[in-house]
Amino acid sequence: MHLREATSIAATGSPEPFLRWPYGASHVTEPDPRPPLLGEVGVNWDESTALKAFGDGRFGAHIDEEWTSLQGVHGGVVAATAVYASEAVVREIGAPDGTQLRAATFGYVSGNTVGDLTIEVEVLRQGRAMTTTHARVTQGDKTTTVARLHHSTPWEGMAYSDAPPPAAMPTGAQRVELPPPVHLNNVETYLHPDTTILAGTPRSEWIAWSRPLHGGTFDAAWLTMYGDYFPPAVFTRATAPVRAVTIEYSIQIHSAAGSWTLADGDLLATRMHAFHSHDGFAVEDGWIHLPDGSLLATVRQTRLAG
Length: 306
Description:
This protein is mainly beta. It has five helices and 15 strands.
C-alpha cells in the first residue's frame, strides 16, 4: 500500500483516492523541467522555527499548518524549537566556544496543535565542558512537551562503531510527496521500494534517504526534527490501521560539529526499526548516516502501539 493511502487510512479510518505518488529518486539540484512537488512550495525552516525572546529563559514560537501530522502537529518541529531555545540560553550564560548539543530526550505528554507555543528553559547545571538544561513547552495552560538537553564541548575518547552500516539507495526509491498540509513534505525523502505501509512486512522498518528541502546545510535542531520525522515503523508490519503515538523520543548526536553540509545530490541514509512491541508499547531505534558512511546520530522512540 502506498504511503499516501495508508496515511489517509491511519488518520480517518478509510482510504481517500490516491492523488499522485512522487517521482523516482533524482537530484533536485539539477535543472528540472517537472512542476515543483507540493512539498517544495512554501515551507521555510527558519520561519517555521523562529523564536521570540521574552526574557528569563522564556521564548515564543508559532507552528504553522505545514507541520500537520496524523495527530496535531509534528512533535519533531516542536522539539527543534526547544533545541533552539536551549542553545540561546546556553550562549547567554557564556558556555565555552565549541559547545554543541550532543544528546536530548523529549517527553510528549500532550499533543501540540497549530498555533503559538511557549518554551521555558532552565539551566540545571553548567560545568566546565557540559551544560544541561530542562525545557518545557506549553500551549495556553497545558504542558505539551518536556525535555532534557546536554550541550558540550568535544571530549577526547575512544572512537569506533559497531552500528549497522547504511544501506545504498537502490534504483526505484520513491520520493515522498503528499497533498499538503503534512509534515512529511518538509524534507526531501526517498523511500526504499520495499518499505510499504500496512503490508504485513516481516520487519517494522523504514529505510530512506533524505536531505533538507532547501539547501544542504543543517544544524542540530533540524537533525532533532529529522530524527522524529518518520511515521511509526510498526505501520509497515501491520495489516490494518493501528494506534502508534510517541511518548518519549531521544537523540544522540555523534559529531561535535554543530552543523553539517551535504554536497549537491548527497543524502542522509536512515534506518528506523521497531524491534520489539508488547503489551501496547513498542520501542523503535534509528540510525542516521552521513554520505561518507559515518554515523551522525542515533535515535530511540517509545511508542504506544496498540
